[in-house]
Design brief:
The complex is a heterotrimer of chains A (303), B (100) and C (357). Chain A is an alpha+beta fold. Chain A is 32% helix and 29% strand. In chain A, a hairpin with a 2-residue loop joins strand 12 and strand 13. The longest helix of chain A is centred in the middle third of the chain and has 16 residues. Chain A is globular, with a radius of gyration of 19 Å. The relative contact order of chain A is 0.13. Chain B is of the alpha+beta class and 100 residues long. Chain B has one domain. Chain B is built from 3 helices and 6 strands, in the order E-E-E-E-H-E-H-H-E. A 3-stranded antiparallel beta sheet of chain B has the order 5-1-6. Chain C has 357 residues and is α/β, with parallel strands linked by helices. Chain C has a 7-stranded mixed beta sheet with strand order 3-4-5-2-1-7-6, covered by helices on one side. The longest helix of chain C is centred in the N-terminal third of the chain and has 33 residues. The chains are: A alpha+beta (303), B alpha+beta (100), C alpha/beta (357). Chains A and C meet through strand 2, strand 3 and helix 4 of A and helix 2, helix 4, helix 15, helix 16 and helix 17 of C.
Chain lengths: 303, 100, 357
């Protein structure tokens, strides 16, 4: 059963009660929340996603609720629990859904060590993965959102998972988070997409989420082979420029953007090395999203 | 630490090191420290020769292999460069002098 | 009885768990920081292949992390050994690092959050200087915090290494100055034993190690860590309890170190929750340290709550703010600076430096 098949009331009942067991790629999150904004956001962003029944296993139990302190009357807040722990400080109540999204990312990066986990966006075409490792502010989410609207399948906008046994990329399709100017850029770039309400004044500025394409969700169990590793850099006004990067540097950049590479020791190195060996590595500067998409589509058309 | 150019050096055991040789660069993983290193042209070349040399190699031997020039001032420069690389390798735990 | 305590006592029965039961167990184990311990128990019994795939992935992930942390602790101890030798101070390890280097069962499946060492108070300035010189920095930056720690606490403000991002707690006593109990650190150091074949790398003697564990457990603000700490105590008691003369020495030394009360609690709760085998004579001797009846009842209540899984809706009522710091500290493995920046850019991670007021 997918979320869209639940009535609003059923959805709210699950969220308020035993929890909604939501599957996103390889992980199932059991989500509880009494907040109406969360129910609305889930109905919008996760309509196509499968839910699991009660006789199953959830990888995390998360809850977005309101703190029980004096502040709840002065300044409404939301807080994020996972397995009874509070990894984040509370945030203003209107940031509840972004907090859920950050929290779900945190859960994966903290626990899913059956994968090598990288802070990188990843999309797929012709069965091959295009990985965009990058620190915050490099424009990778915008580029990812753009590519997803020009023929690429979304695997993840934030966390790239590489299976240690198969050395393939495992999808984790979730809403794509957009910040500040990117929100309007993507609206203009892909007028047909669904973008949720903009939440202002977060630590990242204004944030909104673009719904993942249905096909990306539907194909959420299909892995991707190594393809390209590209370090993006947005420069306003710049023409698109793709320059080759040595595999050595490609590996080091990936390792620098990994959450758990060191933890896996030699096995992590061997897996990453094998992956990079089968990938082509580049640096990419761009100023225009359409031009960028064209460059990558050319890349995908090649061998 | 200064070592005699005649001292033989060897790469730390292959059980502890894993590496890939891509074009002019070598990426090495050191299990003992958990660190990964990207070796540039000179470092990569010294490393390749070191792992390929059964029984180790001296600074002079490594330097000599890097240049086709006959003995001269240039070789002293190469030896100094190689010695520097080996000193770095020692610090990173990638190689050690054979002081037996 | 909560699933987690049953899992600690009879791991082999876990193979009969249903998927929802596995979910509950992993949830409880995560809360108690005992997931890797359970995973290791199952791995050693050869039972991991019988665990369904989805929960098994989490158990295996916990094993990977535990193994990586063990390697990291060993490296850290190696570096510390060198640093302290520059100022002629022995490296005396406490808690997890001690259990690991001494090869004790208590180190199995352990989550290591930081390294704790014990240093003579007279040598504290030298040690602190040496550590700063070798790349450690303090984590508490306000003058108030620094003064507070140095005046009242039994340890320096936690130190973090600049590049490795590992955390070090330098203790000069095992309880704060403000505590009612006054165990003499000089005695602890005098009775310490060499480990790992080196004279200047040491751990507390067995009885002191146990008393420290009991003291730590019952003076820790964070009750939620209680079960893990109790599991440590249980493991140490089972391991050392077989040594001749141990059970006579334990209450005697407790009295000598003014730690009779913690020992009493320790034995009481270990036997009660984990079924630790303690000879009745030892219980009786330890009972001399028992609290007044009403305090005892209150403690029973508190510890029942701490060791019972709490539903998320209760968590708000029970949670002291200090709980958060511990959870963040548990993620110790070196995070590349870029990734740390990612977490911090969200500005949502509670910093360890934030003190409660």
């Amino acid at each position: 059963m997918i979320v869209a098949e639940l009535s609003n009331r059923e959805l709210e009942q699950r969220l308020n009660g035993p929890g909604l067991r939501l599957r996103t790629g390889p992980v199932v999150a059991r989500i509880q929340s009494p907040l109406p904004s969360i129910a609305r956001a889930i109905a919008l962003q996760y309509a196509d996603y499968a839910t699991e029944d009660e006789a199953s296993f959830s990888d995390f139990r998360v809850r977005v609720g309101r703190p029980r302190n004096l502040r709840r009357w002065l300044r409404p807040q939301a807080q994020f629990f996972v397995d009874g722990n509070l990894p984040f400080t509370p945030l203003p109540l209107d940031q509840a859904f972004p907090m859920l999204e950050w929290g779900l990312n945190w859960c994966v990066s903290a626990h899913c060590h059956q994968f090598l986990i990288f802070h990188a966006a990843v999309v797929e075409k012709t069965g091959r993965a295009l990985i965009l490792p990058a620190p915050p502010g490099s424009g990778k989410s915008t580029l990812c959102a753009g590519l997803v609207n020009r023929g690429w399948r979304l695997l993840s906008d934030e966390l790239t998972l590489i299976d240690l046994a198969s050395c393939e990329v495992v999808p984790l399709p979730r809403p794509v988070s957009l910040k500040n100017a990117s929100i309007d850029v993507i609206r203009a770039f892909a007028p047909a997409v669904t973008i949720g309400p903009t939440v202002r004044d977060t630590t990242k500025g204004s944030v909104a989420h673009m719904r993942a394409p249905s096909e990306s969700v539907r194909r959420g169990m299909e892995t991707a082979r190594p393809g390209w590793i590209v370090l993006p850099r947005y420069e306003a006004g710049s023409a698109a420029r793709l320059t080759s990067l040595s595999k050595g540097r490609g590996l080091m950049h990936m390792a620098d953007n990994a959450f758990n590479y060191s933890a896996h020791g030699r096995r992590g190195f061997e897996c990453l090395a094998q992956f990079v060996d089968q990938s082509s590595c580049y640096e990419f500067a761009y100023g225009d999203l359409e031009e960028a998409a064209a460059v990558f589509n050319d890349l995908a058309a090649g061998p | 630490m200064v070592f005699s150019p005649k001292v033989r050096w060897r790469a730390v055991s292959a059980d502890v090191l894993a590496w890939r040789d891509w074009d002019c660069e070598v990426v090495v993983f050191n299990q003992a420290t958990g660190s990964t290193h990207l070796l540039g042209e000179l470092g990569g070349e010294v490393f390749r020769r070191l792992v390929g040399a059964e029984g180790g190699a001296s600074v002079d031997a490594l330097a000599a292999g890097l240049t086709d020039e006959p003995t001269g001032a240039d070789n002293a420069d190469w030896s100094a460069a190689v010695a520097g690389v080996l000193s770095d390798f020692a610090r990173l735990g990638l190689a050690e002098p054979d002081v037996s | 009885m909560p699933m987690i305590t049953a899992a600690l006592e009879t791991p082999q029965e876990l193979v009969a768990c249903t998927l929802p039961q596995w979910e509950e167990l992993i949830h409880q184990a995560r809360r108690a920081n005992l997931l890797s311990r359970i995973a290791l128990d199952l791995a050693e019994l050869g039972l991991l292949p019988r665990v369904p795939l989805a929960p098994r992935a989490h158990l295996e992930a916990a094993l990977v992390m535990a193994a990586a942390q063990m390697e990291a602790v060993k490296r850290e101890v190696g570096v510390l050994r060198t640093v302290l030798s520059t100022v002629g101070v022995d490296l005396v390890l406490l808690k997890g690092a001690a259990y690991l280097i001494a090869g004790l069962p208590a180190a199995r499946g352990r989550v290591f959050s930081d390294v704790d060492i014990l240093v003579p108070s007279g040598k504290l300035p030298d040690v602190e200087n040496a550590l700063m010189l070798h790349g450690w920095s303090t984590t508490y930056h306000s003058a108030y915090d620094q003064r507070y720690y140095r005046k009242w606490m039994h340890e320096l403000p936690p130190l973090r290494h600049n590049t490795r991002r590992t955390v070090l707690d330098v203790h000069h006593a095992i309880l704060p100055v403000t505590a009612r109990l006054k165990p003499d650190s000089a005695k602890l150091l005098a009775a310490s034993r060499p480990v790992g074949g080196e004279d200047r790398l040491r751990v507390l003697c067995p009885v002191d190690m146990i008393l420290h564990s009991a003291t730590h457990l019952f003076h820790n603000d964070d009750l939620r860590q209680g079960l893990r700490d109790l599991a440590d105590l249980d493991s140490l008691l089972r391991h050392f309890g077989q040594e001749p003369g141990f059970w006579e020495e334990l209450p005697r030394r407790a009295a000598e170190l003014d730690l009779a009360r913690p020992l009493c609690y320790g034995l009481r709760y270990a036997t009660r929750f984990l079924g630790t085998p303690v000879p009745s004579e030892a219980r009786a001797s330890a009972d001399i340290g028992r609290p007044p009846r009403i305090v005892g009842r209150l403690m029973d209540l508190l510890y029942d709550r701490a060791l019972r899984p709490v539903s998320p809706s209760d968590a708000g009522a029970l949670t002291p703010l200090s709980r958060h710091a511990l959870y963040v500290r548990a993620h110790w493995l070196r995070m590349p600076p870029l990734l740390l920046a990612w977490h911090l850019s969200v500005k949502a991670l509670r910093r360890e430096e934030e003190t409660t007021t």
